[in-house]
Amino acid sequence: MPFAGYFHTLARFVAWLVSWLPADEAPRWYALASWALLICIIAYVFSARLPFGLGTKLLLGLALVATTVDNEVFFNLANWATLTSLFWLLLSISSEPHSRLQWLFDVLLLVLTGLNSPFAVCLWLLFLLRWYMRRTRPSLSLLVLSLAVAAIQFWNMPARINAGNALPVWNEVFIDAVLYRFGFMFVGEQIYHLQLTDPLRLLGLSMLGLGYGGLFWHAVRQKNWSLWSVLAGGLLAGLLSLYVLRQTPGILIYSAGRHFFIPAVTVAWGLILSDIKPKFWRWLPLGMIWMAFLFLTPSNKNQVLPDLDWAGKTAECVGTRPACRIPINPVVDPPAWFATMNSHVFRAPVISNTLSVQFGEQIELVGYDWEETATTFDLKLVWRALGKMQTDYKFFVHVFNPNDPTQILLQEDLMPLGWQYPTSKWVPKEIIADQVTFSLANLPPGEYQVRAGWYDPNSPTLGRLTAHDLSSGKILQDDLAILPSKIVVP
Q: Considering only CA atoms, which of 239, 259, 242, 237 is closest in space to residue 329?
């Protein structure tokens, strides 16, 4: 994974909250949580803690959501690390807290978002600048905490652990990735049609250096430290993510543009916060960014990216299969990230033989399938839980001679799903499909039948659950459900 080892603190918290809901609802709540996070960032931009006018804040909020970036950045919990790092950028330029409550808010925001994002490894430098310029106790406390969070994240960074497999920084592919990353914000996916040559690489690096250098020089000359922090944070975060992605050169170029959100937003923010004269040199690049957002980015072409459809894949799987392994962000072939979940199944599978036999008030046999060979017999029984059970019942399956029902030739007594899923864990209306296999090698030629039932293994009498045929309304003899199909042994 591009940023293996970091904690996803906030995303894990959301996942824990959603784990209390039905699993098939999870994607909707994950998407809602992602929108809520975006709203929180915009709300912070408009808060009184940022010392800008309303017009500037409107432009900053617009730049946050109208930048050339694929829409998966906003829709996926896996990308919260990117979004939450913006809180560090905004916190580094916010005004000093005026109360203990505001200071506590700053501390919690820094720690929670910092542990959610690997960019703390480089963004702590912004709090060093904040403290150097202000020399206040709140700024010092944020600097100390940012260093502590950065140290924790650095300890877990894959760049530190697996750097032996990575590309050299000055490798041609890495340089191309840098140029694609920063070019994507101005021309969108059209950048991938550009075949980079050495002269183009030199030109691109020169333009990148002149552009950032000019903005940084302007920030220093005007003592605009908010502009300096925003630009520095975006540049450091963008280069850090590419530095880590160099361990996976197969997706480095592709991810360079697709996961460039922080550099693009911070360049737009920097242009908005600057007062470069003439204004043409501010609005020309901003206009290019917004035109690329409107016309040259997949997010505006009604395209459903494969990893954005993981909600649809989850809805197809959860409730129909007991275990789901669903590919999620990022899109690579073969998939690299998966959501693995267990679920209760409430939809009966397609079965060849349907029945309706109820055992007590607890369990219903809704049907069965079987597959017979010359030596084996595989029986699939499909049960439905009718209510919550406190007892761990066992079911049994008999193979018997229909001419002498008292003669049991083969027998299995089992807990459901190979003793792994006792009935006390079943939930009402859940479907459980269980498999029983018999060897027919020792049976003489002839026709045989199968019957099944349930009993309480903790009862002194091993009492069976009363079997009712729901289609006829009759109680079945000996509380046994006899399957109408027959086994034929040649």
A: 259
Confirm if 382 and 412 have CB atoms less than 8 A apart.
Answer: no
Q: What are phi and psi of 228, to 5 degrees?
A: -60, -45
Cα 333 to Cα 55: distance, rounded to the nearest angstrom? 44
Token pair belonging to 418: 């190979």
Q: Three-state DSSP class for 246?
A: coil
pLDDT category of residue 161 using cuts at 50, 70 and 90: very low
Residue 370 has pLDDT above 60, yes or no: yes
Other CB atoms within 10 A of residue 101 CB: 9
pTM of model > 0.70:
no
pLDDT tens digits for range 394-408: 999 999 988 888 888
Report the Cα 56 to chain-centroid distance in Å. 34
150: Cβ–Cβ under 8 A, 6 or more apart, which residues?
A: 114, 120, 121, 122, 123, 124
Structural domains in the chain, CATH included, are 9-308 (no CATH), 353-489 (2.70.50.60)
Taking the CA atoms of residue 278, residue 283, residue 285 and residue 289 in that order, the dihedral angle to the nearest 10 degrees is 170
Residue 278: cis peptide before it, omega within 30 degrees of 0 = yes
